[in-house]
Design a protein that fits this description.
The structure is a single chain. This protein has 207 residues and is mainly α. The protein has one domain: Tetracycline Repressor, domain 2 (Orthogonal Bundle), CATH 1.10.357. The chain is 74% helix and 0% strand. The protein contains twelve helices and no strands. Helix 4 runs antiparallel to helix 5 and helix 9 crosses helix 10.
């Protein structure tokens, strides 16, 4: 493993644990027992490092998503598995990390091209395409437009100015928005599957 990969993996842990703003290059270097100069030889600044971390997270999640898609009986089952995984992933992130992403790196979250490269948002086109082939999503939908709408759903459901955290859990907001949007593009077959997996999910949650 080269220094670039080691730095990215360590920064990923520290960012998610303490937040982006709280982690300095000095802290990262000390944690890795290397010089700060070594880090700057690989990354020009913290923004470049953050982009490297996010890209690494995307690549890892793509591998996980590909595995889930290949092992699921249908794309609806895969979606519910992904939603559970995403919930676990976000719960493992510190509130400081999520807040820093919104406050100081809004250009990433507000840019559709950047947002669709974030973890969990990069597989929507593949999911929609497979869903059409399986007959669970309508074949008259425009994949590109629908994907953009799903990105907007993701962004809006995570916006504290739209939903106050005391009123809704992010998990419930995103899940309800996403699943209800999928209902609108689903065939009867797709709706039956959504209802089945949604019922199973609710039964598990309320046990």
């Amino acid at each position: 493993m080269d220094y670039r990969q080691k730095i990215i993996e360590e920064a990923s842990v520290m960012f998610r644990t303490y937040g982006i703003r709280a982690v300095t290059m000095d802290m990262l270097a000390a944690n890795m027992s290397i010089s700060k100069r070594t880090i700057y030889e690989v990354f020009s600044d913290k923004d470049e490092l953050l982009k490297g971390v996010l890209q690494w997270m995307v690549n890892r999640q793509r591998e996980v998503m590909t595995k889930i898609l290949s092992e699921s009986e249908n794309v609806i089952e895969a979606i519910f598995k992904m939603l559970d995984l995403m919930t676990d992933h976000f719960q493992a992130m510190s509130p400081a990390f999520q807040m820093d992403m919104k406050r100081f790196h809004r250009n990433i979250l507000d840019n559709p091209k950047e947002l669709k490269e974030l973890p969990y948002y990069s597989n929507n086109s593949e999911i929609l395409t497979r869903g059409i082939k399986e007959g669970v999503f309508r074949d008259d939908i425009d994949i590109e437009i629908t994907n953009k709408c799903l990105l907007e759903v993701a962004r809006m459901s995570n916006d504290k100015e739209v939903f106050h955290p005391d009123d809704f859990l992010n998990r419930d907001v995103f899940r309800n928005f996403y699943i209800n949007y999928l209902r609108g593009i689903s065939t009867h077959k797709g709706l039956d599957l959504i209802n089945r997996y949604d019922k199973q999910e609710n039964s598990t949650i309320h046990k």
